[in-house]
Amino acid sequence: MKDMYDAFQLNNGVENPCIGFGTFKAADSKSAEIIRTAIDAGYRYFDTASFYGTEGYLAEAIKASGIKREELFITSKAWKTEMGYENVKKAFEKTLETLETDYLDMYLIHWPLPEEGYKDWKRLDIETWRGMEEIYRSGRVRAIGVSNFLPHHIENILQNCEIRPAVDQIEFHPGYTQEMTVQYCKEKNIQVQAWSPIGRSALLNHEMLMEIADSYGVSVAQLCIHYALQRGIIPLPKSSTIERMKQNQDVFGFEISKEDMYRIGTMAQAGWSGLHPDFGSIRGASK
């Protein structure tokens, strides 16, 4: 990958840009300004979800930018309350309406369980995926996939699907690399995407990461983003200033050594959100 407009090819042939802009909590400003700034900074791949409350702001920002729809790659997700065969189809229609577009580039099931301890998740996921397959066949989404699914959740889909998931979007960053899920997806030809690729403030001030980043003349954030890319994973960083937005794109001028990749990949857990697909929010967070 030479710049953020290069792409990974998904298992259905769709080209997925190698860096996206995450819009989670971008709605906190109650405006499209941050997203419009990201467009001005050069981002063309935007990750949103019905739960984020940013679909409308993304539509507003795109309209104001004058950028053609076909120049953008837009992903959204069906929330826990939108699972099920009929529900997910209705949710997709509402998302298209809110985004003011007639198609999505990617649509994902946001979480495998609608609530902590839900026993009948296998049946619900299969029904939801059947609705996703119908949406895909309609030609109004270019790729379908999952988010926050672990291997046993994906295996349930693979054993009962006609169209394989193209993507699994998971929390991934130094200090929380979910190696078993990453390896499983690699074996199954499912592209991994990383939400929260920079982790949290604990990573930005992590002594080892600061030392490694300094050796390459980059910031810890740039190191984390490049680490994902070097692992073949699509990072979805988010930022609120144009300076950091551009810095998060400037991650292609160096290569992390094998030794440093091992050091980063084996560091103690840090920066974890506290979210787990089977056990809910351990720390009261939400994503």
Automatic annotation (TrEMBL):
<dbReference type="InterPro" id="IPR018170">
    <property type="entry name" value="Aldo/ket_reductase_CS"/>
</dbReference>
<dbReference type="Pfam" id="PF00248">
    <property type="entry name" value="Aldo_ket_red"/>
</dbReference>
<dbReference type="InterPro" id="IPR036812">
    <property type="entry name" value="NAD(P)_OxRdtase_dom_sf"/>
</dbReference>
<protein>
    <submittedName>
        <fullName>Oxidoreductase</fullName>
    </submittedName>
</protein>
<dbReference type="InterPro" id="IPR023210">
    <property type="entry name" value="NADP_OxRdtase_dom"/>
</dbReference>
<feature type="domain" description="NADP-dependent oxidoreductase">
    <location>
        <begin position="19"/>
        <end position="264"/>
    </location>
</feature>
<keyword id="KW-0560">Oxidoreductase</keyword>
<keyword id="KW-0521">NADP</keyword>
<comment type="similarity">
    <text>Belongs to the aldo/keto reductase family.</text>
</comment>
<dbReference type="InterPro" id="IPR020471">
    <property type="entry name" value="AKR"/>
</dbReference>
